[in-house]
Amino acid sequence: MKGIGLLTYLIEAADTVEATLLAKGTVAADILSQTDQQGMIFIE
């Protein structure tokens, strides 16, 4: 079940990143939450 564990890790890591961005009040947090639903994050 390595794949499941890795997926869980990535989801938790993404949540941590999003929480950090939200805590900083950056515009990137809004971008992250919008692109998160599509499973893609674009950095310009």
Give a quick set of tags describing it.
44 residues; 75% helix
What does the secondary structure layout of this molecule look like, with pairings?
Elements lengths: L1 H23 L2 H10 L8
Helix pairs in contact: 1-2
Largest sheet: none
Q: How many extended strands?
A: 0
Number of helices: 2
* Approximate helicity band: over 70%
Following the backbone from N to C, one meets helices and strands in this order, namely HH
Measured distance between first and last alpha carbons? 35 Å
The secondary structure category is mainly alpha
| Global mean pLDDT | 70
Query: Any idea what the radius of gyration is?
Result: 12 Å
- List low-confidence stretches: none
User: Shape from CA axes?
Assistant: elongated
Could you characterize the architecture of this molecule?
This protein is mainly alpha-helical. The protein has two helices and no strands. It has one domain (2-36). Helix content is 75%, strand content 0%. Helix 1 packs antiparallel against helix 2. The longest helix has 23 residues, at 2-24. The mean pLDDT is 70.
Summary of the model, kept short:
This protein has about 45 residues and is mainly alpha-helical.
